[in-house]
Amino acid sequence: MKAKLLIALLLILLQPILVEAQNRTVISGSIYDAETKKALPYVNIGFLKESIGTVSDENGEFHLAVDATTIGQNSSLQISYIGYKTLTLSAAEFFSQAAGDSKFYLEPEPFSLAEVVLTNELRKEKNIGSLRIKQGVTGYWLNPEALGGEIATRFKVENKKTKLHDLKFNITKNNSGGIKVRVNVYNYKEGYPAENILTQNIIYEIRGDGVQTINLEPYDILVDQDVVVSLELIEVYGRYIDFEVGGSDYKTFSFTRLYNQDDWERVNQGLMFSLRVSYPSENGKVIPRTRITPKNLTVYWDASIKMSSDSRDVDEELKLLRKYLDHLNYASVNVIVFSALKMEERAFSVKDGDSKNIIKFLESVTYDGEVDFATILKDNTTEADAALLFSNGNTIFSALNQEVYLPTYSISSSPEANHESLQKASFYGEGHYINLESLSVNEALERMLTFQADNESFEDNHKNTITGGIYTEDTIAIPQAAIRVKNTLKETLSDNLGNFSISADKGDVLIIDALGMYEKQLVIEADTNLQVALKPNTTVLDEVNIYTKIKQESETRLTPYGEKKVDAIGYTVDELTKNQILPTDTRLDDIIGRIPGVLISGVGTNKRYSFLNNVTSTTGMFVDPNPAIVIDGTPYSQGNGLSNLPPINVQNIKSIRAIKSLAGTNRYGSIAAFGAIEIITQDGVVNTQDKHQANKNRALIKGNDYREQEVSLWEEVNNTSSYTKELEMASTFKEAQRIYEKQKSVTQMTIPYILNVSDYFKKWDADYSYVVLTNIAALASDNLKALKTLVFKLEERGNFDKAQMVLERILELRPSDAQTYRDLAMNYQETHKYEKAFDLYKRMLANAIPEADFSGLREVIIDELKHLLALHRSKVDFKSLPADLLKAGFKQDIRLVFEWNDPNTDFELQFVNPQKKYFKWSHTLFDNRDRLLNEVNKEYAAEAYLIDDEEPGEWIINLEAFDQEDSNNPNFLKYTIYKNYGSKNETKLTKVIQLNTLNSKVTLDRIDYK
Fold first, then answer.
1. How far is the C-alpha of 713 from the C-alpha of 699, rounded, in Å?
2. Which residues pair with 386 in a beta bridge?
3. Which helix (H) or strand (E) holds 499?
4. Cα-atom radius of gyration of the chain, to the nearest Å?
5. Do 469 and 528 contact (CB within 8 A), yes or no?
6. Are 25 and 67 in contact (CB under 8 A)?
7. pLDDT at 444 (0 to 100)
8. Which of helix, strand or coil describes residue 936?
9. Predicted local confidence at residue 15, as pLDDT
């Protein structure tokens, strides 16, 4: 009586956490892992042999109904969970703790896994138990509060190392809204279930009736003797349950208990339970392991333009998805549609295998842009049990790299799939790569439902590759010849030996073009190795074979970085150094006369220094036809005679050289249109900061007054295409999208089309505009020219991270492209990777990158390195640089940088100063042949100009293009203006111009210089 009174008093203390229901009191609490402090779901809580018990919910919370009149002094409560030490408390201890924080902690119990044979062991299968109904016993649940109640059947095990593969049971009635059960497997001893032999929970959700199958394969359950298998009720959906499993004709016992901690009651008839098992046998077969059926699934659906139906068998992929979801029966499915960005995410529920809403949704997906796996398979916020990835795995953006441990089935039917990438992603979470090009849907489904080795190796799947060489008629190799497949964006360049390879099919038309050569077209026949000879275009070459010059081998010299070209300075030059100046030399004539190819003619004011073969002028009849004299970086014209030169002590000369091509004199402008004789004294060092001085001298020439009045601003030139006009009729974003999707079905996806549509959509949605732009990456991933255009536009938008990936792709295709290394160094600065930028600049200045030659970009690189040091010196290790690069105070008022996507680009720049004097820089083969040859040979396409320390006023920058030919991959110019370059208040503006849309001269910029 005293014990009962004590319990009653404890229950009074529990009033804040008790709920009265008839004559019972409900006690609430929570169960946690003692080490991780995480809640434990579906834990058994109950008083032993008192028929009082329950199960915690999925959040670890429980509600236990007790009757104080039935709980005595000797009553014990037990909390048990698979994988944890059982906690036993007296009734008083339990009530006291429940009155406190009501939190109960279980200690994890270490256990050793039994050795499971997972090899190709031969085994025989059989079924034990029966699903045939026999009237008599019935296992049922009628009370929704009877959580922890069990119904069970004994199975006779006749063979050692018997493995349990799956459990089937036949539900004769289920009127509940759904229930969740746990499978338990007990040893059978002395006529009753004994200890539970499982080491992990097996949870199954039931929402219907009839035969149910629970996969036991993943749990590796091996037994040597009879076992009892039970279903334990752990959750009821709703307030009502009426559930029955009928009796069977299997001669065995069945067992029931109201709560998990109760005693068992035995009945002399089996329930409709059946086990599929196997045991070792020499006459058996290999039995594949069955995977756990996921209840929570994530589907990643690649909606990039390469995944459109004409490049894959989307019907076959959807058929496989439909069959897989049908097998799941009940599941929550989260579908993520993505391309360059995540486009849409939608949640679905599959009931009775019905997946038509998911299939209908995926059939409506539109495809656009390049795929980017930056956010794919990186986390599992939806707690999925498995993932399906439908993709071909190809991208030039973030590669497929799974980082979350999750069984993933990568699925592709594309003949151009990146098999290795998809297979690697599937390996990470022990999934499987499903290649529907070689598997039927049923074979693929089998690999998704069972554990099977994925040992398939894949060879290069680019079967239709055309190789060959491009040469002159004299069999001289032509580098950087453009080879493209007509009416496509497939394009490549020949290497320095004239060799090329391109993906094309029999019957395709190849178009081959090269600087100064006539275009040639040919149809691909059976031969996949083509040797193509191009004829010179004599209208621009004057019957001179320009590729002979490129072919000539250069003298090399061993350096710390390997063997390098001595002529890496990039232009024709003859030089005398201080060591070659004799003590008897007193006049400049004494030295000049010893330079090969230089003539001294005339006397007095008529004396001139000239070259035997003058370089070609680009500025017209008003320029002195003799080379400029450049003393310590300052150019002087010979037009007024040599007497106007400043006095020079010839013994103080460090070097003197004759520069006989325009490529070497671009820095001095039109004053040096016929070359230059460059003199460096001991007192002066030429550096790129002197270029602005050339601007002053260029404008002093007579006859170059700027009188044009009708030059339009580039932004005002209206070249709106018909498809853009159609888009501009849309009044909403959705309407514009519909027009675009309709256009894509009838319009060729050319580079101009993609760029113009992308620019149009900026006003509606920046992300959508970006996705459209990435179509270039998807459709022209091997096209260097198109990829360079894409970099221009990405940088114009400020998307430097993605531009970096495209630049890296270009270098993967063309590791000798000097321009791209420089572009990558600039990109590193923009993305704050200053150490990487610094290291790359140093390597370029040292010409230390194999295959690439940076001499054509030397001045640009030096300025940009000084710029990096001016702004970020503290972030790099600059101690190894020469002193002249470390001078403080680097700054340029205005820096103009011009870049183009193809050396074979004809245009002309005109610079007009505040005094309305102009000078021109021509980039045409006719006017500037040596420069274009140098670009082809050294693979660069950029020029920079300065406006520094000038008179204030307006500068005008004009542009004239000479290539109006329509093209699906035309020439583009990128113009960037920096103000206060190298200072903390630096500003930058970038414009990208499609050159073949310019029918006349335009004004790129008007600069108010102060």
1. 23
2. 297
3. strand 499-503
4. 41
5. no
6. yes
7. 94
8. helix
9. 42
User: 296-451 adopts what CATH topology?
Assistant: Rossmann fold (3.40.50)
pLDDT in tens, 769-786: 999 999 999 999 999 999
Write down the CATH number for the domain with range 566-686. 2.170.130.10
Q: Are 659 and 573 in contact (CB under 8 A)?
A: yes
Cβ–Cβ under 8 Å, residues 259 and 161: no
Quote the CA–CA distance of 971 and 53 in Å, as a whole number.
Answer: 79
Residue 50 in tokens: 């008192």
* Average pLDDT rounded to a whole number, residues 515-538: 84
Cα 732 to Cα 342, 735, 736, distances in angstroms = 22, 5, 6
pLDDT of 700 over the 70 cut: no
Q: For the purposes of burial, counting CB atoms within 10 Å of the CB of 885, is it exposed (0-12), middle (13-18) or buried (19 or more)?
A: middle
Which CATH code fits 465-547? Answer: 2.60.40.1120
Cα 963 to its chain centre, rounded Å, is 35
**Exposure class string for 202-241: b at 16+ Cβ within 10 A, else e:** bbbebbeeeebebbbbebbbebeeebbbbbbbbbbeeeeb
pLDDT of 819-836, one tens digit each? 999 999 999 999 999 999
CATH 2.60.120 domain range(s) in the chain: 123-290
Task: State pLDDT tens for residues 730-765.
Answer: 999 999 999 999 999 888 999 999 999 999 999 999
Which residues share a beta bridge with 529?
A: 467
User: What would the pLDDT profile of 880-923 be if each residue is shown by its tens digit?
Assistant: 777 767 777 788 899 999 999 998 899 999 999 998 888 889 99
Alpha carbons within 13 angstroms on the beta-carbon side of residue 630 total 32
Token pair belonging to 104: 């109960």
Structure tokens at 64: 């236990």
Residues 2-106: name the CATH superfamily. Carboxypeptidase-like, regulatory domain (2.60.40.1120)
Q: Where in the chain is the domain with CATH 2.60.40.1120?
A: 2-106, 465-547
Q: Is the pLDDT of residue 863 over 60?
A: yes
Query: Where is pLDDT greater, at 50 or 969?
Result: 969
Q: What is the model's pLDDT at position 546?
A: 55
d(Cα 588, Cα 611) in Å, to the nearest integer? 16
Contact between 173 and 209 under an 8 Å Cβ cutoff? The reply is: yes
Residues of the chain with CATH 3.40.50.410: 296-451
Choices 1.20.120, 2.60.40, 1.10.238, 3.40.1000: CATH for 699-716+891-1010: 2.60.40
Map residue 571 onto helix, strand or coil: coil
Average pLDDT of 976-995? 94
- What letter represents residue 78's amino acid? Q
What mean pLDDT do residues 124-133 have?
Answer: 92
Question: What letters, b where the CB count within 10 A reaches 16 and e where it falls short, cover 835-867?
Answer: ebbbebbbbbbebebeebbbbbbbbbbbbbbbb
CATH number of 123-290: 2.60.120
Q: How far is 230 from 273, CA to CA, in rounded Å?
A: 9
Judged by phi (left if over 0) then psi (alpha if -120 to 50, else beta), residue 430 lies in: left
Q: If we measure between CA atoms, which residue out of 799, 1001, 789, 815 comes closest to residue 900?
A: 789
Q: Report how far residue 618's alpha carbon sits from residue 701's, in angstroms, rounded to the nearest whole number.
A: 14
Where on the phi/psi map is residue 411: left (φ > 0), alpha (ψ -120 to 50), or beta? beta
CA 984 to chain centre: 33
- Helix boundaries (H) for 604-732: 691-698, 722-727
In tens, the pLDDT along 49-73 reads 888 889 999 999 999 988 877 887 7
Of 271, 244, 279, 287, the C-alpha closest to 129 is: 271
pLDDT of 475-491, one tens digit each? 888 888 998 898 888 89
- Write the CB contacts of 617 (distance below 8 Å, at least 6 apart in sequence): 623, 625, 673, 674
